[in-house]
Amino acid sequence: SDLLYTFSKGQYFKKVLIAVNGNWKGHTNGLFEIDKNMMENVLENFNNQKIDLVCDYEHQTITKTDGPAPASGWIKSLSIEDDKLYAFIDWNEQAKEHIQNREYRYVSPVFSPNTIDRVTGKNTGWSLHSLALTNRPFLEELGEVFLNSKDDLIDLNTIISIARNDQQKCKDIY
């Protein structure tokens, strides 16, 4: 089968904006730029993974040094639409409560510029390391996360269709 993921029937995932085109000079690592090529590289590396990508709280996956860093959800798929990168997220129940109660209002992606393929050792470029629920995002352009709109929920068949189309677009580019 050529399906990228196996989902339970009837599951819906939240579509969340995680990147826009632009450049920012005030990042702690210096100039930070996102463009369509970078988004396509992130998408390709995501599609080559065999596991869902973690969403956490306050970047704990990379900053917490002791104890657990619990997931707030899991990214099931990515897509590029109108030069914007979206994630399709399966939030867990605790994260849904935090978002609904407006205890967490934003997301903050962590992009890695020099991803090394674990099997080949080859540098595959940009990847999405994780996504955090936070109240202090660097990319303020992403806007607030909401749960109360069914307009931006997406079902399994649509995710599979988007993933197949995006995979073909990446093949056409390279």
Number of helices: 4
How do the strands of the widest beta sheet line up side by side? Answer: 7-8-4-5-6-1-9
Query: What fraction strand?
Result: 35-45%
- The percent of residues in helical segments reads 10-25%
- The tally of beta strands, per DSSP, is 9
Summarize the main sheet.
7 strands, mixed
- Which value, in Å, is the CA radius of gyration? 16 Å
Structural class by secondary-structure content: alpha+beta
Low-pLDDT ranges: 1-9, 169-174
The span between the termini is 24 Å
Question: What is the secondary structure topology, with strand pairs?
Answer:
Blueprint: E1 12-20, E2 22-24, E3 32-34, H1 36-48, E4 53-57, H2 60-63, E5 73-81, E6 84-91, H3 93-100, E7 106-116, E8 123-134, E9 153-155, H4 156-173
Parallel strand pairs: 4-8
Antiparallel strand pairs: 1-6, 1-9, 2-3, 4-5, 5-6, 7-8
Helix pairs in contact: 1-4
Description:
- With 174 residues, this protein is α+β, with helices and mostly antiparallel strands.
- It is 25% helix and 36% strand.
- It is built from four helices and nine strands.
- It has helices at residues 36-48, 60-63, 93-100, 156-173, and strands spanning 12-20, 22-24, 32-34, 53-57, 73-81, 84-91, 106-116, 123-134, 153-155.
- It has a seven-stranded mixed sheet.
- Strand 7 and strand 8 (123-134) form a beta hairpin.
- Helix 1 (36-48) crosses helix 4 (156-173).
- The chain is globular, with a radius of gyration of 16 Å.
- Mean pLDDT is 83; it is low at 1-9 and 169-174.
Short description:
By secondary structure, the chain is an alpha+beta fold. It has helices at residues 36-48, 60-63, 93-100, 156-173; strands at 12-20, 22-24, 32-34, 53-57, 73-81, 84-91, 106-116, 123-134, 153-155.
